[in-house]
Amino acid sequence: MIKIKEGFKNERVVSVSEKLLEEYRKDPLVRNLYIRKIGYFPQARFHFIQKADGCDYAMLIYCIDGKGWYEINGQTYILRKNEFVILPSDTPYTFGASSRNPWSIYWLHFQGTQAHRFLPSGYAPQPLQPGDDSRIQDRLRLFDEIFHNFSMNYRKEYMLYSCLCLYQFLGSFTFLKPYRNITSTMGSPSFAHRVIRFMHENVQNNLTLSQLAAQFKYSPSHFSDMFRQEIGGSPIHYFIQLKMQKACQLLEFSELKINEISQSLGFEDPAYFSRTFSKIIGIPPSLYRTQENQRRQLHIVP
């Protein structure tokens, strides 16, 4: 059986040397809670890690697609899409991706004198299902912010900032209810805002008008009328535009093939995806990728 620790296509990984960490630990902000390593593995086929003697850090694994498994204290658990687990330090465990449907995961290693405060009471996977109050996109944006600043860890102020952000990021998992209830203290979002947030969190799925309406407990016609009153267009058309916006990001910043991007956005037919992209964006996806690559090479801001 093939077993791979790292080296997946389109992965993102950043770590910090022990020597630099030792220097940073002298600062109270760092030694309380800090990151050792952070990354994102998309479709990590053959991913496998075994810590037979445990390790000196805790590990968060957040699955956003596919599935995997982990074994701890003699019990095996399945980790599925929209679930997470935090594996403790000093405890032996093993984990890996499903062979048929390998997971895509955000993950990080963390340590510190206060790290134990973010550990769950058990080992079972915890759900993070999308909903109109789930704030999943907020969490992923925070991950990107932490990743960017941690990648600049040779400058201490960036390391300090990533440590401060880590409190909120881990808190969004271990204190899920307060994290999701933040909207109640900021004022209730509008109907369309809640719908759009749900669309963002399901951009990889094929959602019909009936499914959208059922999620918010309205009839399709009433749901559509309410959305049009706020946005000025149909919900399905808006959803497709969001998909094309995501497609632009993937074309520009990933090495995924066009048919892979098509599948990741819920299009079973790549030709239909290309036609839809051309209609909304104005050019075919292959030309869009070429133009964006040329702009980056020439340092031209569009």
Short characterization:
This is Transcriptional regulator, AraC family. It is built from 13 helices and ten strands. The protein has 302 residues and is an alpha+beta fold.
Helical fraction equals 40-55%
Q: Quick one: CATH class of the largest domain?
A: Mainly Beta
Give the helix/strand class. Answer: alpha+beta
* Global shape: globular
Spans of at least 5 consecutive residues with low confidence: none
Please name the CATH topology of the largest domain: Jelly Rolls
Q: How far apart lie the N and C ends?
A: 47 Å
Domain HTH araC/xylS-type: 193-291
Organism: Paraprevotella xylaniphila YIT 11841
InterPro entries: AraC-bd, Homeodomain-like_sf, HTH-like, HTH_AraC, HTH_AraC-typ_CS, Tscrpt_reg_AraC-type_HTH
Pfam families: AraC_binding, HTH_18
